[in-house]
């Protein structure tokens, strides 16, 4: 980290991204993330024993996390990076504690979607999804078992019923349908790629809009956060996002910042308590090494059953 501080001073007179070599730019961005992330991004910190895995607490500077515009930056390269750059290896792998395998995708969504047209969500589409969900037959994006695992988690999540809910990461509104079925009053979906919603109580935002709404105090608070198969991709570049070894942790921490006391986080990410790994640049799998940091400050509340996949649902409270 000593070298990183030096770079920050060295580059004060440079225009970020224009005059720096890619490796130096990556180091500079890392230092900018680390500065505002503080102890939240220190993944060496010990935790205390929790019901499912260790519980980690950190002082989170919410204002700094939302003021930092570099967190929501695109990677700016023609193609998503195929390998973890050497200068980021230790941070991405938590000093070699996470296994790394290759599994590559390039699906640029952040900024301008390049792989698909802008999805348009309609009331009739979501009504159809809700009625299938009610019968336990909604396939969603990951099959009926995973959909029903999320539905089960939502029945245990404080704040969802009658609440204002933030959904992080979405392509089709199947998770939104489950959240509405569980009785939510209003949803804001935060997604890298633009989505147009014609559903009156489902608004969509891209990260820039979300960040600005927080900073100009129009975002408001949420009663609950819900995310399924999304934050494990944050910071890996797959969706056009800048490489950020803590992208997942910061995404969940920002959710914590905007949640009311007593509210909840319902999350489905790839999970295996005994085998944490990164499949670069596809995704991360969380176990006893990284899950505690992903869930920093959230209290472990309910562990759902596993759907057919490995995205086991966990519910946390604030
Ligand atoms: C594998 S897709 C699945 C999305 C959702 N679970 C679904 O089935 O419709 C992951 C999505 O999460 C989005 N994503 C990942 N990290 C994000 C973040 N930090 N903020 C907003 N969107 C994010 C990506 O853009 C992508 O569309």
What order do the helices and strands come in, and which of them pair?
Blueprint: H1 2-10, H2 22-37, H3 62-67, H4 89-92, E1 99-103, E2 120-121, H5 123-134, H6 144-155, E3 164-168, H7 174-181, E4 186-190, E5 196-197, E6 202-205, H8 207-215, E7 222-228, H9 247-257, E8 259-268, E9 277-281, E10 283-285, H10 291-294, E11 299-303, E12 313-317
Parallel strand pairs: 1-9, 2-5, 3-4, 3-7, 4-6, 7-8
Antiparallel strand pairs: 8-12, 9-10, 11-12
Helix pairs in contact: 1-2, 5-7, 6-7
CATH architecture name of the domain at 120-317: 3-Layer(aba) Sandwich
Broad CATH class of the domain at 120-317:
Alpha Beta
The CATH superfamily of the domain at 120-317 turns out to be: Vaccinia Virus protein VP39
Query: What does the average pLDDT come to?
Result: 92
SSE pattern? HHHHEEHHEHEEEHEHEEEHEE
Task: Indicate the proportion of strand residues.
Answer: 15-25%
How large, in whole angstroms, is the Cα Rg?
A: 19 Å
The hetero compounds bound to this protein are: S-adenosylmethionine
Count of beta strands: 12
- The CATH topology of the domain at 120-317: Rossmann fold
Low-confidence stretches: 1-15
**What would you call the structural class?**
alpha/beta
- Share of helix, binned: 25-40%
Could you give a short account of the major beta sheet? Answer: 7 strands, mixed
Strand order of the largest sheet: 6-4-3-7-8-12-11
Report the end-to-end length measured between terminal Cα atoms.
32 Å
Quick tags:
3-stranded mixed beta sheet; binds S-adenosylmethionine; single chain; 7-stranded mixed beta sheet; Rossmann fold; alpha/beta; 318 residues
């Amino acid at each position: 980290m000593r070298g990183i501080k030096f770079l920050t001073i060295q580059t004060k007179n440079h225009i970020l991204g224009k005059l720096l070599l890619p490796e130096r730019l990556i180091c500079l961005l890392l230092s900018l993330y680390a500065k505002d992330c503080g102890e939240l991004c220190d993944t060496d910190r010990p935790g205390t024993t929790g019901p499912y895995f260790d519980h980690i607490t950190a002082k989170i500077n919410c204002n700094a996390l939302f003021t930092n515009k570099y967190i929501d930056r695109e990677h700016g390269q023609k193609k998503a990076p195929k390998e973890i750059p050497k200068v980021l290896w230790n941070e991405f792998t938590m000093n070699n504690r996470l296994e790394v395998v290759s599994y590559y995708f390039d699906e640029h969504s952040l900024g301008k979607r390049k792989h698909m047209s802008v999805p348009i969500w309609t009331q009739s589409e979501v009504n159809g999804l809700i009625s299938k969900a009610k019968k336990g037959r909604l396939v969603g994006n990951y099959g009926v078992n995973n959909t029903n695992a999320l539905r089960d988690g939502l029945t245990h999540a404080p704040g969802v019923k009658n609440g204002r809910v933030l959904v992080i990461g979405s392509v089709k509104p199947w998770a939104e349908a489950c959240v509405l079925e569980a009785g939510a009053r209003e949803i804001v979906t935060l997604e890298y790629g633009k989505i147009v919603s014609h559903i009156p109580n489902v608004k969509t935002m891209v990260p820039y809009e979300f960040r600005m709404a927080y900073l100009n105090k129009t975002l408001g608070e949420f009663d609950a956060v819900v995310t399924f198969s999304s934050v494990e991709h944050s910071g890996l570049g797959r969706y056009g996002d800048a490489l950020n070894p803590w992208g997942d942790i910061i995404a969940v921490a920002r959710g914590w910042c905007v949640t009311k006391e007593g509210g909840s986080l319902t999350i489905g990410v790839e999970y295996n308590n005994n085998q944490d790994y990164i499949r670069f640049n596809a995704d991360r799998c969380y176990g006893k090494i990284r899950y505690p940091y992903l869930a920093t400050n959230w209290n472990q509340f309910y562990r759902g059953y596993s759907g057919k996949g490995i995205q086991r649902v966990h519910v946390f409270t604030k």
